[in-house]
Amino acid sequence: MDKLGSKTIIGAGASFTGKITNAGVIDVHGQVNADLTTEKITIGETGQVHGAIRADLVVVSGVYDGEMDAGSVWATPTAKVSGKLHYKTLQMDRGAALNCHVVHNWDAGTADKGSGQKKDAPDAAPDAAPDAKTSSKQKGA
Amino acid sequence: MFANNQATPSTPPIMSQINVDVRISGTITVTEPLSMAGQIDGNIEAEILHITSTAVVIGDITAKNVVVDGKVTGNIIAEKVHLTAQAQVKGQIQCQGIMIDNGAYIDAKFSKGAGTHG
User: Fold this and answer.
1) Minimal C-alpha gap between A139 and chain B (Å)
2) Residues A56-65: pLDDT tens digits?
3) Measured between beta carbons, which residues in chain A are less than 8 angstroms from residue B27?
4) pLDDT above 70: residue B86
5) Residue B31 is nearest to which of A13, A29, A42, comparing CB atoms?
6) How many domains does chain A have?
7) In this structure, is residue A131 part of a structural domain?
8) CA distance linking residue A97 with residue A83, whole number of Å
């Protein structure tokens, strides 16, 4: 265990279903159908991940399908990504296959800048709208 | 930023392990050795399973060989079970062979499994 360091590894022969939270570093070489919240995740060449990912750094060498909310994304030449990709910085190697909705995360990158928040407003609208309505009603009343 | 991680993608998988801080709800199925150090709310299926002293398992364990150092609440179905001195087990244990170290905290019902692990 010590030899392997302090990371979580889903090996090539492993499949996982459910939810993983609070993991520092995850290496996925097997199959994962789960929502993952972590600092760093590496999807190896044999790895397959289906589900939402929230992470600071995502390295994709395998197959990913789902909604990803990441700081930095690195898609290596063997990567296959589908779904939706929110990112702050993205590196895509020659050969990587991205079949997904790619969104630059303005808000997270420049959270303190007003202009950045405005650009993100349409995305946030469904959540924000009810509040805005109620507040305006309250004002009216 | 990316340069720091150049070596990462091709690391060969040796075995599966779940780290100390990790919280999991769900099922893990592994056909290779698994070292479990985190918290899991769900079932584990593995060949060779090590529940380390930091681990908390709430759920059923199915394996060939299990070594328990940590806390397990649930059923254990295995061929060989080793409960070490730090083990805390609550539930049912169905196995063919068992070893219990002095000091293990066990509140379990034992039964002889007839090769339940497939």
Assistant:
1) 44
2) 999 999 999 9
3) 16-18
4) yes
5) A13
6) 1
7) no
8) 12
Residue A2, chain B, CB below 8 Å: the answer is: no
B43 interfaces chain A, CB cutoff of 8 Å: no
The answer to whether residue A127 sits within a structural domain is: no
Residues of B in contact with A6 (CB under 8 A): 19-20
The answer to the question of residue A34 being in a domain is: yes
Domain ranges of chain B: 16-112
Alpha carbon distance A115, A126 (integer Å): 19
Burial (CB count <10 Å: 0-12, 13-18, 19+), residue A68: buried
Taking residues B28-38, what's their average pLDDT? 91
Residue A109 forms part of a structural domain: no
- Mutation choice for A interface testing from B11, B15, B17 by most A CBs within 10 A: B17
In angstroms, what is the C-alpha Rg of chain A?
18
For A100, the domain range is: 8-104
Q: Say yes or no: ipTM exceeds 0.85.
A: no
pLDDT digit string, tens, across residues B41-83: 999 999 999 999 999 999 999 999 999 999 999 999 999 999 9
